[in-house]
């Protein structure tokens, strides 16, 4: 199989600063043959010149970390490697400036995470912070790489101690035992990354690349219910009504019945066009125009969402959301009614209740029913749209489960829908 034929997984590397995330990325790329040969050659040459007879990965990583300090940065975002079953892209890591924002807005949705924990330090503040964020943002699968095992002489007891400490944390946050795997590794020296480490005879589980290969395939947007947020509606003479939009999830074919919500109109798909050519079907990512029978141009509009009649888009009466306040000059209180931007719709919504204020980093509830929230706060809020709005639960259709709150020309907050009540 070539890389392109394999299913694709977005992987987040998370963990406390200095626990070895960058080193592990380098190691994974190196072991899978993704550090270009000329780079290795250059380092080999340099190593020889500096009196190092053998090429060592650890040395390369130290050189790279020096480069990083000098601001030359190996950019660890968007690195790719593959295993037998998948090809992986390493997405933005927590710690990068816009990580939380990118995750909430869906700019960098990870399918799985590798949590890197220094065996000599165990759970540290950012370990908790990142694990909590991952759970909130819907990353259910996690591989825990207990790293720097060389620093603790590959001590089995130490490994077990760290494992149980992390296990306790993950379960408390809501991870299920079957979705967490543990591997003792040394990113720097190697060991249980691509091959078993002879230093850990007590460990006979899969190595890290095998664990990555064992991850469950995420649900493809094509298997989710059809959702096409409508961008525009045209009326073309001789053809009829042609709504235009990007298929977010599911598939659409001619002759199917589709419903537009919140307009509540139903019609039959006559034909689908993409790049000025008729196509027999369209799926996630396709920008299409489709000719619809039985619906007039003025009966539907931008902000409507098309879906199949047997699983139509959800029009909400109210919903509960997790939000992060990015920028607001004063305080947000119940009654605040800014404009919510979700897919192609913009609807004024009232924050009717602030249920909880949370520490945005650890998810710890800081206050129940607070009077107000401010910039930097994370909160669970209840929201009432002032006009009908289609939005879905993040868990069910992530592509339609996120929104941005805008007011006074800027993005005040971003959020995701945790629960909702349908309009009768
Ligand atoms: P990050 O902040 O999580 O990206 O951590 P880095 O990858 O920059 O690593 C921090 C320090 O730990 C560096 O000096 C690495 O060389 C070192 N380090 C990383 N992995 C290992 C390991 O497996 N064993 C040892 N002994 N040191 C490691």
Layout: helices, strands, pairs:
Blueprint lengths: L7 E7 L6 H11 L5 H13 L7 H13 L9 E4 L4 E5 L7 H7 L6 E7 L6 H12 L4 E7 L8 H18 L6 E5 L23 H6 L14 E9 L3 E7 L10 E5 L3 E10 L2 E3 L7 E7 L11 E4 L6 E11 L5 E3 L5 E4 L2 E14 L6 E4 L3 E3 L3 E8 L3 E2 L11 E6 L2 E13 L2
Parallel strand pairs: 1-3, 1-4, 4-5, 5-6
Antiparallel strand pairs: 2-3, 7-8, 7-13, 8-12, 9-10, 9-13, 10-11, 10-12, 14-20, 14-21, 14-23, 15-19, 16-17, 16-22, 17-18, 17-20, 22-23
The site of guanosine-5'-diphosphate has 18 residues, from α1 and α3.
Give the ligands present: guanosine-5'-diphosphate
N-to-C SSE series? EHHHEEHEHEHEHEEEEEEEEEEEEEEEEE
Beta-strand content = 25-35%
| Overall pLDDT metric | 87
- For CATH, the homologous superfamily of the largest domain is named as P-loop containing nucleotide triphosphate hydrolases
Number of domains: 3
Radius of gyration, taken over Cα atoms and rounded to an integer in Å: 25 Å
Content-based structural category: alpha+beta
* Outline: globular
What is the strand tally?
Answer: 23
How is the quaternary structure best described? Answer: single chain
Q: Write down the CATH topology of the largest domain.
A: Rossmann fold
Strand order in space, largest sheet: 2-3-1-4-5-6
- Please write the CATH class name of the largest domain: Alpha Beta
Main location: cytoplasm
Catalytic activity: GTP + H2O = GDP + phosphate + H(+)
Keywords: Cytoplasm, Elongation factor, GTP-binding, Hydrolase, Magnesium, Metal-binding, Nucleotide-binding, Protein biosynthesis
Domain Tr-type G: 6-222
């Amino acid at each position: 199989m070539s890389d392109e034929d394999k299913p694709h997984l977005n992987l987040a590397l998370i963990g406390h600063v200095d626990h070895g995330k960058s080193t592990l990325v380098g190691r994974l790329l190196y072991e899978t043959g993704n550090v270009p040969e000329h780079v290795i050659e250059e380092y080999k040459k340099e190593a020889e010149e500096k009196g190092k007879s053998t090429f060592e990965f650890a040395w390369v990583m130290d050189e790279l970390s020096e480069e990083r300090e000098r601001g030359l940065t190996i950019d660890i975002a968007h690195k790719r490697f593959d295993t037998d079953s998948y090809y992986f892209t390493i997405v933005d890591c927590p710690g990068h400036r816009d990580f939380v924002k990118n995750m909430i807005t869906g700019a960098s949705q990870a399918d799985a995470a590798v949590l890197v924990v220094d065996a000599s330090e165990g759970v540290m503040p950012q370990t908790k912070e990142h694990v909590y964020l991952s759970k909130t943002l819907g990353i259910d699968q996690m591989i825990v790489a207990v790293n720097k095992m060389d620093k603790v002489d590959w001590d089995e007891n130490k490994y077990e101690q760290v494992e149980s400490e992390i296990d306790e944390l993950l379960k408390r946050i809501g991870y299920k035992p079957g979705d967490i795997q543990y591997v003792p590794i040394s990113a720097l020296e190697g060991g249980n990354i691509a091959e078993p480490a002879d230093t850990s005879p007590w460990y006979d589980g899969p190595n890290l690349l095998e664990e990555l290969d064992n991850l469950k395939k995420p649900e493809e947007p094509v298997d989710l219910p059809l959702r096409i947020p409508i961008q525009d509606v045209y009326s073309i003479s001789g053809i009829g009504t042609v709504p235009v939009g990007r298929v977010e999830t599911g598939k659409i074919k001619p002759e199917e019945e589709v419903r537009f919500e919140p307009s509540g109109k139903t019609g039959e798909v006559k034909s689908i066009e993409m790049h000025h050519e008729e196509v027999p079907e369209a799926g996630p990512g396709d920008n299409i125009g489709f000719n619809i029978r039985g619906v007039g141009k003025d009966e539907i509009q931008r902000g409507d969402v098309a879906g199949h009649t047997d699983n139509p888009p959800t029009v909400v009466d109210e919903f509960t959301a997790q939000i992060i306040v990015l920028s607001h000059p004063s305080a947000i209180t119940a009654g605040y009614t800014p404009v919510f931007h979700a897919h192609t719709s913009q609807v004024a919504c009232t924050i009717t209740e602030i249920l909880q204020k949370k520490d945005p980093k650890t998810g710890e509830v800081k206050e129940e029913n607070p009077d107000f929230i401010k910039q930097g706060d994370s909160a669970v809020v209840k929201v009432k749209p002032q006009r009908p709005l289609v939005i879905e639960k993040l868990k069910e259709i992530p592509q339609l489960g996120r929104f941005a709150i805008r007011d006074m020309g800027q993005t005040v907050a971003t959020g995701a829908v945790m629960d909702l009540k349908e309009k009768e």
